[in-house]
Design goal:
5 helices; about 50% helix; Arc Repressor Mutant, subunit A; globular; alpha+beta; two-stranded antiparallel sheet
């Protein structure tokens, strides 16, 4: 688990998802990263059982399913206002 959370891009994706479920395009805009990078990291998070993706028409909506990760992130960053932790600063 900590190896997964040791990657700053994956942590940033999870913080974006703390605000609410999202598709890859919204996450990409939030982090200002290439779509391929976001998709690769989402695959790793999904493979680890931390997030899940549910198809909604043509898009996949990602959400955090491991509540232990939510608690770890909140403890790591003492998160009270998720918006201040977005790398790109964009709203989801």
């Amino acid at each position: 688990m900590f190896k997964i959370l040791g990657n700053p891009i994956r942590v940033s994706i999870l913080i974006c998802l703390l605000k609410g479920n999202s598709n890859v395009t919204k996450i990409q805009k939030c982090l200002d990263l290439p779509q391929s990078t976001v998709s690769q990291q989402l695959g790793i998070l999904k493979g680890a059982g931390i997030i899940e993706g549910n198809r909604n028409g043509l898009e996949i909506i990602y959400s955090i399913v491991d509540q232990k990760v939510v608690e770890i992130l909140k403890s790591m960053f003492d998160i009270k206002n998720f918006d201040s932790y977005f790398v790109g600063g964009a709203d989801l």
